Amino acid sequence: MKSSLETLLEMHDQMHLIAFWNQLNASRQATLEAEIRAIDFERIARLYQQRDALSDLGAMAKRSRPPAAFRLNGQGNRFSADEARQRGIEALRDGRVGVILVAGGQGTRLGFNHPKGMFPIGPVSGKSLFQFHIEKMLAAARRYGKPVPLYLMTSPVTHDETVDFLARHDRFGLPERDLRVFCQGTMPAVDATTGKLLLDGPEHLALSPDGHGGTLAALVRGGSLADAQSRGIEQLFYFQVDNPLVDIAGPEFLGYHLLAGSEASSQVIAKRDPLERVGNVVDIDGRLHVIEYSDLPDDVARRRAADGSLEIWAGSIAVHVFDVAFLDRMAHRADALPFHIAKKKVPYVDASGKRIEPDAPNAIKFERFIFDLLPSAENAIVVEVDPARAFAPLKNAPGAATDTPDWVRAQLVAEHARWLRAAGVEVREGVPVEISPLLALDPEELAGRLLRGTRVLEPTYFTP
Ligand code: UTP
Fold it and tell me: Cα–Cα distance between 257 and 141 in angstroms, integer?
């Protein structure tokens, strides 16, 4: 007699998933069965059928306009940077701000064999990305006199090692009650030509994290959103693990968000080149959207304003502030975030049991993106930041032109040397310097903490 598992797989034309069933012992069979039963086959089939429509955003992208923005040069800004800073400081002093750090990605480009947050990025200290981020949060909590809780998202790829790493280092000083680690969901990869799920091994499906958009569902599932609500958190500052220059819960950005009555805000940098490979933050029909560079038609990307500047100027750096009430509202909408498709190389086990490492994209992956929340937000705004001060993402392995470990370290050194020089310190050209967030979070704070006449002639780590 057929098992209910066979009936299920037959119904969805996925019998190949149990091709090696008889070679598995009972526990491995149970593993495979659990993975299969967690799949929503109808949804996968629907997404596969709609794959062309899902990737055609060109028509909508044509209607792109510049977004409602607070610019660095102050032009057209409704509120000054000082007003914004004051408003942000109030929220921090009231303890109404928490932080979401997403660290569930596979980090395939970097090729580091551990969660990216463990990467030793400190140019002099060698400290990890996680330590950088947590120290900034501790320094902010100390400065404003209220805890800043961290909601850290992992995925099945990064969860166990991340939890171990943080435990081994006593969470870098973050109190236990101020850290919640929650794991995002996965989606199966399907064969690009047949839509059938791929096997990663005889008892495992090829699964991968469901994109940073998986944050929304995972925040709710793991109880983190409810935790934030119960603590009186009203805004969540969202950022990615790969950027050690990010100004975590910076009061100015928070303040613009609050003064504008925005439900979701985005930090952006001014694009230098119309076809730059960044997400474009744009206004479409009165709503904020992020349009990937690959979806923005060239003629739209090249449009110029009367003063010659790029009309579509705002490049996303994936730093946001979300109102907790907005996230809560969106979490109750099943269609809150669409799936995007990406053609990727996904290793798989073929019908004969042989593992294939494809050298061209063979599979479709389905991912949700957090920025797809923006069109649903009221009064959404963007705030421009200077990339030299706020953006140095670690994406690529050594050898690439930018976003490599050495490139990120050089950005950190350049920024910290600027802080030191602004404080009147002589820094010998080319000498690596690094400032611990626990010593200073910005140049003004640093200036008050240095001895007069400090000179830097050799690699130096400034720490309390
Ligand atoms: P990227 O899209 O740059 O992916 O993620 P990645 O994992 O860092 O690197 P590649 O593309 O595999 O080389 C941007 C941020 O979103 C997080 C990542 O951890 C990173 O902080 N992310 C991405 C998740 O948390 N979950 C996901 O499913 C995808």
Answer: 20
HSE (side-chain half, CA atoms, 13 Å) at 369: 16
The dihedral region occupied by 259, where left means phi > 0, alpha psi between -120 and 50, and beta the remainder, is alpha
Q: What sign does the CA torsion over 196, 217, 267, 173 have?
A: negative
Which residues' Cβ are closer than 6 Å to ligand 1? 102-109, 116, 153, 155, 184, 209-212, 214, 240-242, 395
CA of 367, closest atom in ligand 1: 28
Ligand 1 centroid to residue 209 C-alpha, Å: 9
At position 264, the amino acid (one-letter code) is A
Q: Where are the domains of the chain?
A: 39-391, 396-464
Residue 214 alpha carbon to ligand 1 centre in Å: 11
pTM of the model: 0.96
User: Whose C-alpha lies nearest to ligand 1, atom 8?
Assistant: 107
Regarding the domain delimited by 39-391, which CATH topology (the fold level of the hierarchy) does it fall under?
A: Spore Coat Polysaccharide Biosynthesis Protein SpsA; Chain A (3.90.550)
452: pLDDT confidence band, cut at 50, 70 and 90? Answer: confident
The span from the CA of 210 to the CA of 115, in Å, is 16
**Which of 101, 106, 344 has most ligand 1 atoms within 8 Å of its beta carbon, as the pocket-test mutant?**
106
Residue 128 DSSP one-character state: B
**Model confidence over 352-397: pLDDT tens digits?**
999 999 999 999 999 999 999 999 999 999 999 999 999 999 999 9
Please report where in the chains the tokens 């800004």 appear, as a residue: 77
Q: Which residue, judged by its Cα, is nearest atom 10 of ligand 1?
A: 107
